[in-house]
Design goal:
Oligomer: single chain
CATH class of the largest domain: Alpha Beta
Order of helices and strands: EHEHEHEHEHHEEEEHEHHEE
Strand order of the largest sheet: 2-1-3-4-5
Radius of gyration: 18 Å
CATH topology of the largest domain: Rossmann fold
Distance between the termini: 50 Å
Low-confidence stretches: 123-133
């Protein structure tokens, strides 16, 4: 089935560029030039992914992302940001965006990242293993991960996780006590075949720590290995 993507940008040239390259890659593309209309489309149309510019009329992209994440927690969202606007990049990820790209962007890289975000529903690792394999629950201390239902509980409470947060947590726990570099995590969880921005990993790790660590400054589960990456431990005294 053809994947449907909503492209949202108030610059006609960017919308044309997005549509041309995505349609050439085999996707069906819907377009919107303002945030409020984009949100209405996302609420009424069956979509597989949203590409969302930050600066939009009527409702900015960050607010649209916030609303989408509350209403459609599993819908992949990619943000488009200005080249040097670090605040928008980090805030977009904190609001639940799965990825971001900076303008100007390479159409080839954009299509590659879109395909990577969509692989979660196309039986690929590690998402396919999570979704399709009848594996047993993973239990580490107060944390229980149920791969078959894409759910995790901590201290008996169901965790609110975005798809990428769940996949990152699953991958870290599955590889407990192994040091995983940021590039490894980008390749395995985000499925990037090229050097990506490792801040995506750092922000998602920060989100997970806020949900499972008693003291995020002194974590006992997700440990930073300076100069290398992260390691999941079964809890330290």
């Amino acid at each position: 089935m053809v994947k449907r993507i909503l492209a949202v940008d108030d610059e006609p040239s960017i919308l044309t560029l997005l549509s041309f390259n995505l349609e050439r890659a085999g996707f069906q593309v819907l377009q919107s030039a303002n945030g409020r209309e984009a949100l209405d489309i996302a609420r009424t149309e069956a979509l597989d992914l949203v590409i969302l510019d930050v600066m939009l009329p009527e409702m900015d992209g960050l607010e649209v992302c916030r609303e989408l994440r509350q209403e459609k927690s599993t819908l992949p969202v990619m943000m488009l940001t200005a080249k040097d606007d670090e605040f928008d990049k980090v805030l977009g990820l904190e609001l639940g965006a799965d990825d971001y790209m900076t303008k100007p962007f390479s159409p080839r890289e954009l299509v590659a990242r879109v395909k990577a975000l969509l692989r979660r529903s196309q039986l690929s690792e590690p998402a396919a293993e999570v979704a399709a394999s009848p594996v047993q629950q993973l239990t580490v201390g107060d944390l229980v991960i149920d791969p078959s239902n894409y759910e995790a509980t901590f201290k008996g409470e169901l965790m609110t996780l975005t798809p990428k947060e769940f996949e990152l947590l699953y991958y870290l726990v599955k590889n407990s006590n192994k040091v995983l570099t940021r590039d490894q995590l980008l390749s395995s969880v985000w499925q990037y075949d090229f050097a990506g921005d490792t801040r995506i990993v750092d922000v998602h790790v920060s989100h997970l720590r806020e949900k499972i660590e008693d003291d995020t400054r002194h974590p006992k589960y997700i440990i930073t290995v300076r100069g290398l990456g992260y390691k999941f431990e079964g809890g330290r005294a």
